[in-house]
Write a structure and sequence with these properties.
Order of helices and strands: HH
Helix content: 55-70%
Distance between the termini: 39 Å
Number of helices: 2
């Protein structure tokens, strides 16, 4: 028999957070962090695209630069996602 699984909380619902900040404080912070997160995700995609299509005499150095850059940005995306979760937020993946 299969189990029905439900999400931990509905999308767009900010949960209580372990540091006991009120939602009136965390809501604008979460909104700003989601904007930053979307920007970093777009930057990650751009760096990775350029990593794949770079050509020419400086191929190797540019290839390495873009590789290092998208790996750095991936770390920022991860940290922002963790902090959003810690504030009781959610990753908003669609524009409004």
């Amino acid at each position: 028999m299969s189990e029905i699984q439900a999400p931990l909380r509905p999308f767009d619902q900010i949960a209580d957070n372990p540091v006991l900040l009120e939602r009136s404080v965390t809501t604008p912070i979460i909104e700003g962090m989601n904007i930053a997160l979307a920007s970093f995700q777009a930057l990650y995609i751009q760096y990775q695209k350029h990593h794949f299509v770079v050509e020419g005499a400086e191929f190797y150095s540019l290839h390495e630069f873009f590789s290092d850059s998208y790996e750095d940005v991936q770390g920022y995306v991860h940290k922002l996602g963790e902090r959003l979760n810690g504030l009781g937020g959610f990753r908003q993946l669609a524009s409004q």
